[in-house]
Design goal:
Number of strands: 0
CATH architecture of one domain: Alpha Horseshoe
Strand content: under 5%
Order of helices and strands: HHHHHHHHHHHHHHHHHH
Structural class: mainly alpha
Largest sheet: none
Shape: elongated
Distance between the termini: 20 Å
CATH topology of one domain: Serine Threonine Protein Phosphatase 5, Tetratricopeptide repeat
CATH class of one domain: Mainly Alpha
């Protein structure tokens, strides 16, 4: 999947300025001259001598940061700037401008590499571009750790390369700093998938990851109660964590609090359907469709509810050695909802397959063959 909601920032030209002090040391004076001459190695050596002799030299650490920035040693630059600010705020404005300049430079390089990775047709070239993008965003974060935009773009890079484990940490940071719907959704979905991958080898670890997904998505639900993807991921995570009863309570409370919220109705219905509580599931799906007559997922799952309900009644009759046509009534009830759903999503092979099975049970053989043919053509 390609994630393209990447952002770019404007980069402002930055010129370094030096504050003049009458009593500057020889090392400082000479270092400034070397910086102006762009002899950064010489300047670095003198400034290292300066801060060693005078650990309280705010200007020495500031200028050392300037030199490291010019040499693209951004981690050392940030460290030197922090040491200068820890001594005084004399160079605060210059330091903030410098950090913003380098942050924007790296950020925009990352955006350029990201876009090249998305647009290239070569898989190998794409990986190279995405790797460069990730490195630039990571370095930008090192310079200004509080920037949500760099975390967002870094997460998109990793998701594009399929490195979802690496996307988790920037998404966690994004949840804390921005609380965006995308951050909650993607983090919750990735954690849910990680839990599924652990199921076969580490059940305790899987439960831990599912619980983290639930925690993230619950927070997201409170911030975005109308966001369907967050609600769906939350209900899936509850089910995966064997907390079906808890999930039902959560979405039942949501329905009671916001009875006109079609997403609460739908997800509560899905949970009830999973528990084979057909009558209650039917009620929730019908209400969701009443709120939004074109709610495709609710139409489909209402049809599934009737199909599963009819199958259950048929099996019950078989167990009791009884013959009854009651189960067919449920299949008949499923038909209009599935037919409407397939009209809205004509390229869904699974939906056509299910519709074919319903037609078969109802003795509508021509319709059944047509549905099965369409399902086969889409596979």
């Amino acid at each position: 999947m390609r994630y393209t909601k990447i952002i770019m920032v404007l980069m402002v030209f930055l010129g370094f300025t030096f504050m003049g002090y009458q009593c500057g040391s020889t090392e400082l004076t000479s270092a400034k001259l070397y910086i102006q001459q762009k002899n950064f190695d010489k300047a670095q050596g003198l400034l290292e001598q300066e801060v060693q002799k005078n650990p309280k030299s705010d200007e020495g650490f500031y200028l050392l940061g300037v030199v490291y920035g010019e040499k693209a040693e951004y981690g050392k630059m940030a460290e030197a700037y922090d040491k200068s600010l820890a001594i005084s705020s004399n160079f605060k404005e210059n330091i903030e401008q410098s950090k913003q300049y380098y942050w924007a430079t790296l950020f925009n390089r990352g955006v350029k590499s990201y876009q090249e990775g998305v647009n290239t047709q070569s898989e190998d070239s794409s990986r190279v571009h995405f790797s460069k993008a990730a490195n630039n965003f990571e370095t930008a974060i090192e310079i200004i750790p509080d920037s949500a935009d760099a975390y967002k773009n870094l997460a998109f890079v990793y998701m594009n390369t399929g490195e979802y484990d690496k996307a988790v940490e920037p998404l966690r940071e994004l949840v804390q700093k921005e609380k965006s719907v995308e951050a909650y959704q993607y983090l919750g979905e990735i954690l849910y998938e990680q839990g599924n991958q652990l199921r076969g080898t580490d059940s305790a670890g899987a439960m831990s990851v599912f619980n983290e997904a639930i925690e993230v998505l619950e927070e997201g639900r409170k911030v975005y109660p109308q966001e369907p993807k967050i609600l769906l991921a939350l209900s899936n995570s509850y089910i995966a964590a064997n907390k079906l009863d808890v999930a039902k309570d959560v979405f039942k409370a949501g329905v009671e609090t916001e009875p006109e919220n079609k997403y609460y109705r739908y997800n509560y219905g899905v949970l009830l359907l999973g528990a084979n509580e057909f009558e209650q599931a039917e009620k929730q799906f019908l209400k969701a469709i009443e709120i939004d007559p074109d709610y495709e997922n609710a139409l489909y799952n209402l049809g599934v509810t009737y199909v599963k309900w009819g199958t259950y009644l048929n099996e019950l009759d078989a167990e009791n050695e009884e013959q009854s046509e009651v189960y067919k009534e449920k299949y008949q009830m499923a038909l209009p909802h599935l037919e409407k759903a397939v009209q809205m999503k004509t390229d869904d092979a699974v939906l056509w397959e299910l519709l074919g099975k319903v037609y078969t049970v109802l003795g509508m053989q021509d319709d059944a063959m047509n549905a099965f043919d369409k399902a086969d053509a889409l596979r």
